[in-house]
Amino acid sequence: MDMSKLSGKKAVVIGLSAFFVPMVLNVCLTFVLQRTVTMEPQLHKSLIVIAVLQCQSSFHVIACLLGDLKILNSELGRLAVSSSMISGTISWIHIIISFTLRQGTMKNTQNLPFMVLSLAGLLVLILCVLRPILLWMVAQAAKRKAIKESYIFSIFIMVMLCCLLGEIVGQNFMLGPMVLGLARLWVQLWWIDLTRTFPTFCCRATLC
Questions:
Q1: CA-CA distance, 23 to 50, in Å (whole number)?
Q2: Do residues 55 and 26 make contact, with C-beta atoms less than 8 angstroms apart?
Q3: Distances (CA, A) of 137 to 1, 131, 133, 155, 183
């Protein structure tokens, strides 16, 4: 989030434009297609949903692409990351609100308050419980200049727990890990050790 502050208004304008401009164009095109093209009733009804979903963007995809192009640490790369964080955050907020409203009102409107409270509880758990644990592990690793294997396993357990809780509260399984990842932007050393340890973790989990 600090990158967005450093890039200033330019990143905010690009991020907002990357979300709203495609949405306006897609929605307008959808209305034109619905009035001029003959299609099945189910497709006619869901076309607006498809148009809106095509406007969503992901910060993780942009960051990986910039990393592959080796321009992540350049001025252009930092601007792209900041803009994608803004547009991606808006996209996820839009998806969460839409999905919660749809799930909560699909069968019974009384379910909506419980879904909202469950989602709020998940966010509180990640930000107030798991995030301090991550900060403590990062501080301990910085003092020792090494990462204990138990920390790696703890992080994987947190990620899987967030996936499970996301499904329980009626959201996408990616919501919890995404919030957990954005709650603490880890240093590059953590990412390198995690990527090296991941195959070992999968082998041990399979054997168990």
A1: 11
A2: yes
A3: 21, 10, 6, 10, 14
- DSSP annotation of 172: -
Tokens found for residue 130: 């798991």
DSSP letter at 126 equals I
Measured CA to CA, the distance from residue 7 to residue 2 in angstroms comes to: 9
pTM exceeds 0.70, yes or no = no
Instruction: Tell me the C-alpha distance between 202 and 198, whole Å.
Output: 6
pLDDT of residue 21: 92
* pLDDT tens-digit readout, 112-144: 777 788 888 888 898 888 888 888 887 887 787
Q: In whole angstroms, give the CA distance from residue 158 to residue 170.
A: 18
**For residues 71 and 64, what is the distance between their CA atoms, to the nearest angstrom?**
10
Residue 117 tokens, joined: 């409270």
Q: What are the residues whose beta carbons fall under 8 Å from the beta carbon of 118, sequence distance 6 or more?
A: 168, 169, 170
Cα–Cα dist 14/10, whole Å: 6
Which has more pLDDT, 18 or 170?
18
HSE-CB at 119 with a 13 A cutoff on CA atoms is: 19
- Pairwise CA distance, residues 12 & 22, whole Å: 16
Residue 155 tokens read as 């992080």
